[in-house]
Specification:
CATH class: Mainly Beta
Largest sheet: 14 strands, mixed
Strand content: over 45%
Number of domains: 1
Number of strands: 14
Shape: globular
Helix content: under 10%
Number of helices: 0
CATH topology: Immunoglobulin-like
Structural class: mainly beta
Radius of gyration: 15 Å
Length: 178
């Protein structure tokens, strides 16, 4: 499990976020755990499990609480951005370089197989099928957490930019796959 750090310097431990990415053959599993003892975030209070076709693809998920992953195929210049919302929505975009093209283009290189939310553990689990031949990635795990009062917090494994910018390739510090 990897600890994500806050760009906003949330140092009082009011809440915390961790995540993990597993890559085995063509399957990717992303997991996030939110520690939120004061219930600052509007997250579902009931368990949910969805399968392929039950989770809609949607743009703009980053405007609210959104769990994300950035994957760069090993040795490549391009990368993928994955967005997951607890509102039963997701998307994946393919970039050829830093934030290019604009607007981003959704891709079918990955298929969401299952997504589940455990409210007791505040745990999101996502299973994806990788339809590309790439099996090794540099990765960044990130999230935008929006409090009920509207305040936003930007979490990542590393913040290498001068502002919260999850697209900075140097922030993709995990190596996963073979």
């Amino acid at each position: 499990m990897q600890k994500l750090i806050s760009y906003n310097a949330n140092s009082n431990d009011t809440f915390a976020l961790s995540g993990e990415l597993q890559v085995q053959n063509s399957e990717l599993v992303l997991e996030f755990w939110l520690k939120d003892p004061q219930s600052l975030f509007a997250v579902p209070k009931t368990a949910a499990a969805w399968t392929e076709g039950e989770v809609a693809r949607q743009d703009g998920l980053w405007q609210a609480t959104c769990f994300e992953a950035f994957l760069q195929p090993w040795g490549g210049a391009g990368y993928y951005e994955f967005n997951f919302a607890l509102t039963q929505a997701w998307n994946v975009y393919q970039f050829t370089g830093y934030r290019e093209p604009q607007p981003p283009k959704a891709t079918t290189d990955f298929v969401l197989k299952a997504m589940s939310w455990d409210p007791a553990q505040k745990h999101l689990r996502v299973q994806l099928e990788n339809k590309t031949s790439t099996r090794k990635f540099r990765a960044g795990l990130t999230a935008i957490l929006k409090e009920i009062n509207g305040a936003k917090h930007y979490y990542a494994l590393a913040h290498k930019g001068t502002k919260p910018d999850f697209h900075v390739i140097e922030s993709f510090i995990l190596q996963r796959g073979s």
